[in-house]
Amino acid sequence: MEETQRFCKKCLLRDIDPDRYKEEIEGYINALSPSDKAAPKAYAKRLHICESCEYLLAGTCQACGCYVEIRAAGKRVVCPKKKW
Ligand code: SF4
Question: What is the pLDDT of residue 20?
Answer without folding.
Answer: 80
